[in-house]
Amino acid sequence: MAELMADATRGDGMYATHATESALDSGVSSPVADPENEMRENPSSAPARIMSKTVKNSWSDHGRHALAGDEKEGVRSGMISPRALQTPIHIKGASSLTGNATPKPPGTQHTDSNTPVSIISDLAAKQQQSRVASPTVQEHPLVRTGSVSATIAPPSRAPARTATPRLVSHTPLVADWSGKSDHSRSATEYEHLAASAKLGTGSQVEMARPKAELVKAAVAKATQKHNEPSRPRPMRNASTRSMTHDDNSQRYANIARRTSKYESCIDMVEEPQHAQESMPFDFHPNPGANYGLINAVSSTKELDNESVLYIGTLGIEMDWIPTPTRQEIDAVSKSQEQMLPVWLKDADYVMSYHTYCKQVLWPTFHYTLPTGKGLENESEAWNAYVETNRRFAERIAAEYRDGDVVWVHDYHLLLVPEMLRKLIPRAPIGFFLHIAFPSSEIFRCLSRREPLLLGMLGSDLIGFQTHNFCRHFRQTANRILQAETTARGVHMKNSFVTVASYPIGIDVKMLQKRQEHPDVTEWVEKLRERFAGMKVIVGRDKLDWIKGVREKLIAYEVFLERHPEWVGRVVLVQVALATVRENSEVVAVSDLVARINHKHGSLTYQPIVFLHVQEITFSQYLALLTMADAFLIMSLREGMNLTSHEYIVAQQRRQRPLILSEFTGTYSALRACIGVNPFNAQQVAKAIHHALMMPEEEMVRRWRDLHHTVMSQSSHHWVASILSQLERVHLQQPYMETMFKPELEIAQMQSEWRASKSCLVLLDLEGTLMREDLCYVHGNGFEPPHAIHRLLQRLVADHRMYVYLLSSHSRTDLEKLAMEVPYLGLVAEDGCYVRHCMAGTRCDWTSLVDGFDMQWRKPVREILDYFTERTPGSWIEERSTTIAWYFGEGMSEADAIWARRQASEVQGLISDSLGERFSLRIVNGQTYFVIMPKNVGRSTAVQYMLALDNMGQLPTRHAPTNKGRFEFILHIGRDERLIALLNDLDLPFAPRTCTTAESDSIVSSIATSQLRPYEQVMDALEDIIDFHLRDLKWGGPATMDI
Predict the structure, then answer these.
(1) Where is this region: Disordered (predicted)?
(2) What stretches of 601-714 show up as alpha helix (H) in DSSP?
(3) Does residue 129 carry a pLDDT above 80?
(4) Is the pTM above the cut of 0.85?
(5) Are 973 and 768 in contact (CB under 8 A)?
């Protein structure tokens, strides 16, 4: 068993560790170790399987801020791992086969002519190639003095700048590596692999040779190898594919994984400028690959290896790669590795990821304002962000085939869905945001808020971690875009975007299997011996302010001060994962740890074991989870923290409590935990004491509830539920219908019209029959044009015709039409009241809102009064049931912009404060909106009419009644819900639905035909009247028409 070394560099007892890059520091150390954290810090990287060629290495920090070797900590060696760009796109159906490869094990000294050479592609790192540190023997903080230890070999080179120098570890991803699986390989072998071989299979002497000599030798050797015959690989079949696209956190290291066979990055030897031919290349595991998503997809039985294609970027700089090599990489990776790279400019990547994503989007999405540095370069960074998203969209569109499903991931690619929708309008597109989504008050601070929202709304389905994030998104879309929202999603002009929560989970079975490994058992015993007689609290977080490590330590200090009896009897083991960005958190946390250890520690006791520079293996991490007496998570804001899930599974035997911040997405599901406010140190200290003193019965009861949630919320369920829902909602989209909408031809339906004994005609008034000047109506009252009076009078002259006029006007306004057109049916206030066609000129109104709670009207009126006073040119129209607010009519452009903002504000306020309580909905118009009961509308009014008709109870316009059921229905209007209802009716003759929507919205309508409003609608109705008059003149309908 190889032990990690430790070096006590501070007199206060804080351990500054320096060792191999561990899985824990990379965020995930196994197929199940914190897949969500893997989807957090880095943009995605294109994964691939290891090919049967010798592995080479090429590092790049791609703009990562790093400092030179830290002399203060005595650390002078390290290497920046290859950065990983945006990860992929998962598509259902894409096929790809890979031959079994058995490369030489890392660390093996190559003596043949094909020995590869490692190249550091970052210029600053190259300049430091002569800096080599001597190995030092260190003591691991978790192991008592005298335990077995091993010396860690230093890396060959140090980067130009690194605040936390680290050794890159690339362990094999295939189970059969030189005849050994990852479970059979010892920790000593892993340490040797990470400490020497994985920095480059060449020796240190070779790595120190001049660059020109390296290039010459490498090209010659690689070319010789490239020309050797390789094992034939099966061809890719033509089955339907499925894409996944993800863009996630930067990681420095990984460990062996049995199920993760796709992750790799491509390494190349830099080509001389005069070379024009393709260069040799190979694949090897990429530490920045999105293991979490890949393992979640791999755990889904419905998706085999051949049904997934990952689209992402390489883990190296790309500008220097020649076009022939890029083409060859495309061909090989697609056919053999089930991945496809996106070729970005290095400068675009740096500005997009390091500036816009990390300094603008990341802070805002976590409830803080963008950094000053990010705002200084925001315009340039935004252009790079758009370009990055555009290249991804074009790459996906080029690979898309009918039947594919596109799944885009995370905040690095918010614009891709809309871009894809323009390129492939009929594609099913899903988007999942792994981090938190802020309230509209925070999101509105973004200068590019509109394009970011519209980019996301190009999807069919948008997934979030919690219901709160869904609510924030709907409110933001409503307030900023003035889009109509419901509990299910957002109504767009051409689609309906479903918004739902899908909390991510872990692969429980795989984690349980890893926990049974002998290394874990051995480490559990060592840790129990090390902390014998003490309670152990464990924490594992990134050293990012958002993780609340400082708040955790402060609360722990308060606990020790309030309960001095626990000093010497409890220890906090805090594993601190490094981040890809410089921040002051490292110094602040280190100073805090030193202060607490100095204040409460002694020669034989330290209250905090702080693992920051030193990295622990996944077996050690699982051992900590297994033997812990409590687990403490204090995130200040987080989308989902899956470390809590891992702790619950690891506590199968001990069943100890979990202390969880209420600001994590996990808290909404794991309600049996001890929930705390991380900003309340006194409360957290009390929770720690409660966890340590909790009765066994309560601990078991809490754990069982938590375990049930974790088991039901697995990674397999996460993938399957999202993909199945995505396919369903896509089939319901209006753009699934034909893109061409023919004009309504009255002549084509005359035979059906003549043969029907009873016809129902439904006509919208505003926006279809009548062009309304809202300002004039507000000042002078509602007066329908005489032309409409005459048209409707002639239309209802046919005794078979039941004509209903649908309007948002009040009953009082519509009574004026009823007086002029006796047999006209009316629907007032958008479906709240119905007046039937009856014999005579008088008919009572039927209310469809009886029994509805109308107490909402007073608070809504008060809110609207407040905003009306502050919005010039706006006014309120209060009707019997509904209330309308008009704005933006006859205003200047500046005033209209202000009015739209006010309208967005008032809608959000009413929706948040009264919408759910009173079951209200808001119907948006171009310069107005209407507040009304949620379960009432024009479609419900028509349903009411049809129900009466089916029962034979619909009032008739003549006596004695011989109407019979409606055999033909014609609807001309804009209500898509009503159109959908009528399209599904089973009548003797198919209903005719005709939309009068604006030209840019017609394509999204599900109506069977279209007409331009006003004049063209009037002409069509005149044609119907003419057909009736000709029949009256020349006799009944012909035999052929019956």
Answers:
(1) 1-50, 94-115, 146-167, 222-247
(2) 618-627, 643-650, 681-693, 696-712
(3) no
(4) no
(5) yes
pLDDT of residue 121: 27
Do 557 and 669 share a structural domain? yes
- How do residues 897-924 score in pLDDT, each as one tens digit? 888 888 888 988 898 889 888 999 888 8
To 10 degrees, what angle do helices 467-481 and 449-456 make?
A: 120
Please give the mean pLDDT across all residues of the chain. 74
Q: Distance between CA atoms of 586 and 355, rounded to whole angstroms?
A: 21
Asked whether the beta carbons of 651 and 670 are under 8 A apart, the reply is no
Q: Do the beta carbons of residue 363 and residue 370 sit within 8 Å?
A: yes
Per-residue model confidence (pLDDT) at position 1033: 75
Widest CA span in the chain: 114
Please name which of 237, 283, 404, 45 lies closest in space to residue 396, comparing C-alpha atoms.
404
Please answer whether residues 171 and 197 qualify as being in contact, where contact means their C-beta atoms are separated by less than 8 angstroms: no
Lateral strand order in the sheet of 89-91: 89-91, 242-245, 406-409, 429-432, 461-464, 496-501, 489-491, 484-485
For residue 621, being part of any structural domain is answered with: yes
Q: Provide mean pLDDT across the span 414-422.
A: 96
> How far apart (Å, rounded) are the C-alpha atoms in residues 284 and 51?
8
End-of-domain residue from the set 501, 519, 542: 501
Element (H, E) at 905: helix 893-910
Tell me the pLDDT band of 167, cut-offs 50, 70 and 90.
very low
Beta-carbon count within 10 A of 99 CB: 13
Q: Looking at residue 79, what is its pLDDT?
A: 28
478 shares a domain with 564: no
Question: Distance between CA 488 and CA 394 in Å, rounded?
Answer: 30
Judge if 582 and 646 occupy the same domain.
yes
- Between these two residues, 526 and 12, which has the higher pLDDT value? 526
What residues have CB less than 8 Å from 861, skipping those under 6 apart? 876, 878, 883
d(CA 733, CA 727): 10
| Pick from 341, 303, 311, 292: nearest CA to 243 | 311
Structure token digits, residue 1041: 């028409």
Between strands 406-409 and 16-17, the pairing is unpaired
Domain that holds residue 484: 291-501
Asked if residue 141 belongs to a domain, the reply is no
Give the C-alpha distances (Å, rounded to integers) separating 123 from 22, 274, 316, 455, 856.
26, 20, 13, 36, 66
How many domains are there within the chain? 4
**Whether 449 and 330 share a structural domain:** yes
**What does the pLDDT average to over 488-516?**
90
Pick the residue with more confidence: 469 or 10?
A: 469
**DSSP 8-state assignment for residue 855:** T
- CB-CB contact of 456 with 431 (8 Å): yes
Same domain, 963 and 926: no
How many other C-beta atoms lie within 10 A of the C-beta of residue 188? 13
- What the block records as the tokens of 242 is 């499925």
Does the residue 681 lie in any domain?
A: yes
The per-residue DSSP string of 288-320 comes to: TS-HHHHHHHHT-TTS-GGG-EEEE--SS--TT
Domain end call among 484, 501, 518:
501
Whether the CB-CB separation of 135 and 167 falls below 8 Å is answered with no
Residue that has been written with the tokens 């005359």 in this structure:
750
678 token code pair = 């991380």
Mean of the pLDDT values across residues 668-683? 93
Give the C-alpha separation, 18 to 578, whole Å.
12
- Based on the domain organization, do 707 and 768 belong to the same domain? no
The verdict on 297 and 398 lying in the same domain is yes
pLDDT tier, 739 (very low <50, low <70, confident <90, very high otherwise): low
- φ/ψ of 829, rounded to 5, equals 50, 50
Paired with 912 in beta bridges are none
* Residue 617 sits in the same domain as residue 691: yes
* Phi, psi dihedral angles at 428 (to 5 degrees): -75, 120
87 Cα distance to chain centroid: 13
In a domain, 880, yes or no: yes
Q: Is the pLDDT of residue 943 over 70?
A: yes
Q: Which residues of 925-952 are buried (b: 16+ CB within 10 A; e: fewer)?
A: eebbbbbbbeebbbbbbbebbbeebeee
